[in-house]
Amino acid sequence: MRIMKIPRGIKSAAAAVFLTVPTAATQTVIMARAPWWALPVRSMETSALWALGISAVVALLLLRGARGVYWIIVASGALWVFFGALVAIRTRNPGMGFLTIFVGVYFGLLTSWVRYEFGRSFFDPAMSWFEGAPRPIPAIACDLMVGDKSLRMKVSRLDEEGAFLFGKKIVKTAQKTELLFRFRDREIRCTGIPMIAFKRASEGVGFRFEGNTPDQKKDLGDFIETLRGEGYV
């Protein structure tokens, strides 16, 4: 997959990853049971630097659209909670217990957030790693129009946020593009911005709908509701 435009949600999730830095430093203080006037500064710096380095790697993978980063976050959160709970029980440290609960909630929300962002219609073609192309939605097609060029594409995902299109070849574009969806005798015209592209046995691109008028949004919404009513999306 090649990211053409990073969604705002993924940028925000990448920034939220760095909350682990002050959390790691705070955990060091709680584990040492240190008063505010005698903080273990060197240990805090070490913990914060480790958290910063790992967070930077995770954030970079998020911004590159690496799907495996989800499992890295899940594993990191599970290990942090497990060892935090173990230390809290063995040392009978209630502060460590409360911090571990906070860490568990934080990682739970972060993993849900990342999973949601990576699962959006314009970011996920719903294609398994071993497949060369997504599965097309029957009876739905889309004409991708760039300038005087037009290319008929298949549709693997479609909702109010965007769509994922694919075919043997796509029109290369990084700009706002006009899309013409067809279903039986209905045609819906809208515009979208390319977000992510792939090239395997087929080529595909995910579009986020943007720059459409209220009438276009309404027509698109009615079109999608019709498809849902018939079980296509």
* Topology as a string of helices (H) and strands (E): EHHHHHEEEEEEH
What Rg, in angstroms, do the CA atoms define?
23 Å
- End-to-end separation in angstroms reads 23 Å
Q: What is the total domain count?
A: 2
How is the main sheet built? 6 strands, antiparallel, barrel
Main sheet: strand order? 2-3-4-7-6-5
Uncertain runs with pLDDT below 50, 5 residues or more? none
Helical region count? 6
The general outline is elongated
From the helix content, strand content and strand pairing, which structural class follows? alpha+beta
- Portion of residues within helices: 40-55%
Task: Write a short abstract of this structure.
This protein is α+β, with helices and mostly antiparallel strands.
Give the key terms.
Thrombin, subunit H; 2 domains; 6-stranded antiparallel beta barrel; 6 helices; elongated
Describe this structure in words.
- The protein folds into 2 domains: 2-118, no CATH class; 140-229, Beta Barrel (Thrombin, subunit H), CATH 2.40.10.
- The radius of gyration is 23 Å and the shape is elongated.
- A hairpin with a 3-residue loop joins β6 (186-199) and β7.
- Helix content is 47%, strand content 23%.
- The chain is of the alpha+beta class and 233 residues long.
- It has a 6-stranded antiparallel β-barrel with strand order 2-3-4-7-6-5.
- It starts with a strand and ends with a helix.
- α2 runs antiparallel to α3 (41-63).
- It is built from 6 helices and 7 strands.
